[in-house]
Amino acid sequence: MVSSNEYGSHTWDLLLTVDHQHEDVEKEIPLQVTGDLHVGGLMLKLVEKIKIAQDWSDYAFWWEQKKCWLLRTHWTLDKCGVQADAKLIFTTQHKMLRLRLPNMKTVRLKVSFSSMVFKAVSDICKMLNIRRPEELSLLKQSEGTLKKKKKKDKNSKEPATEDILNLCNSPVSSGLPANPGLYSKTMTPIYDPVSGSPASSTKTWFSDGSTAEQSCSILALSQSPCSPEMLAEMYQPRTLADKAKLNAGWLDSSRSLMEQDVQEEDQLLLRFKYYTFFDLNPKYDAVRINQIYEQARWAILLEEIDCTEEEMLIFAALQAQYHVSKLSLSSETQDSTCESEVDEVEAALSNLEVTLEGGNKSSILEDITDIPKLADNLKLVRPKKLALKAIKTYWFVFRDTSISYFKNKESAQGEPVEKLNLKGCEVVPDVNVAAKKFGIKLLIPVADGMNEVYLRCDNEDQYARWMAACVLASKGRTMADSSYQPEVQKILSFLQMKNWTMCSQAASEPENVDMKPECFVSPRYTKKFKSKQLTARILEAHQNVSQMSLVEAKLRFIQAWQSLPEFGLSYYVVRFKGSKKDDVLGVSYNRLIRIDMATGDPITTWRFSNMKQWNVNWEIRQVAIEFDQNVSIAFTCLSADCKIIHEYIGGYIFLSTRSKDHNETLDEELFHKLTGGQE
Question: Where is the PH domain (predicted)?
């Protein structure tokens, strides 16, 4: 009999790999261990054998075969399931990562590769001074979107976006806790110690003044427009299937970077994933507003979202105004540290209503009064066969969330010709201000799909009132809601930007203006117009925005982006249960839309407000959702992992629970409960 205390009775060999930079020390270390040794004891035993004097506090074991971290240091090897064949790597948890920001600039910083992506993004946003980190996530570019067009000029230089800003010396990047005075969820202003005006915490983190100024400028101020050549080389989606590729690479927020095959020095995209920009405030959100503006600008330029020619010219004019204002202020204090401009923009913000669903719901007295109604003569347009349209004037009455129309005003006391319930419908603007066309396209859910109805208004005021009422009704709200008047003002503001008049001097002498119009519009419009024509048209549109400040131009751009029919839609190619063909699923902040892949027409809309439950069958990768009135759907995702759609739905529901409590902390547990799933 051999005593249990004798060598070899319960011990076994475990080969450990140590990730260190000392060339004279072996990287593979064999240890004699027992199954009841806890992970922390294994770390201690390993460090003692290595005999290298350094800080090992950031090190942990990575189990390569199982792709998981052993972070519970009190667990024994037996409990973890570690056996002699396990390949454990003792490596740092924080590693260098390259992030391409929405403004196409690349930053290099240390990120936790062992934390869940949700927590890692939160830490990244602290480094970059971006509030509301729950709106962002990390995206891997899919192979399809990396393919660039063949270069016509072999000598053309690489895009300037490869310049890398190194932020690896910031406190959070070094794995240290950030100073709570630099970044806070509260609305306590961050002040520059020199000027006394609000300053970026990113700027405060850098000890070198010139570096701080440059870094802050890159993050909070828009850069010069890109060249048409650079734009032509970037991925531009042409179809809905192409747009679906853009959303295929979102990382799983409930797993770490290492678990998702992200390696040190890899490049990922940091993007706003959820299009609910909550509580935007120029005093505290200089970087956040600029990055939202940049994401919107590139989405317009690369045609990731469709817009009309008239709208494209507005976007071009707002970009031009931003850069004109920026040049005029180049010798003065920039907008990020200008107290008076912040106050001016704050006043503008109250009119712009930039945030989606951001209206203050506290006006209780307004909401409990009698629900107002609209009554007007409008034209009803019904598409008919053989491409003919029937246009007829009726007396329309808008009450609650429904529209009723009658033959004339006198017959309004009787039965209507038809009553349309707009709850859950799609509302699409059909406007051409120059042609005095003010149309509203309604796609109303019916048993076998969507019923199309077009309304034509006579003027801007009438259109704004009816359009705002339709938008609210689609969300189940009435005109008594406190957000109705701000919605009307937002629509009128957007129409006013479109309603430009020709400036004779600008039109006759466009060559006197230092502008490269090709930098402000998508390549499609560069091909459609000559440079002088494009300059003249942009200058026309510029007349209505020429007095805007730097930040206001960005906020107006964001507002105009939010007004586009396709705003906030993320596309995925799916196959619905029982269907023989593929469809496109559009995921938005408040609904899911089934879209015909061939025509791009909406087939059915389902609102999150009517959703009872959703789940995933992980074996067959199928998402199943139940709605009110015994409506249920199921689909498999073909263009991405079904977990991405599952997380999108749960994420939007999580974001809808936010409030303007300035001291709130993110309920990370609730987020993972809604988005994590059980695989």
Answer: 379-475
